[in-house]
Amino acid sequence: MSFASSDFKTIILTFKDSNAATAFKNIANKIDGEIVHEYSLIKGLAIKVPKSLDTNSLKNDESHGIVHVEEDQEVKIN
Q1: Contact 11, 47 (CB under 8 A)
Q2: Which residues contact 37 (CB under 8 A, 6 or more apart)?
């Protein structure tokens, strides 16, 4: 499937353990995802995925060991 760069969003996933994070790296390709960052202080990944991906399906599927899913966003202090 071919996507334009504007068809993507970045999500941050945290996992229950490092084995789950490692295993999910293989799944990322299957959902047309690209790992853009691996976190070292937390068991997590930032993944660029198609905007059409239903992130709730990732949140609700406990078989991947995902603890939390959120869309990456800029943080500002006023």
Answers
A1: yes
A2: 45, 46
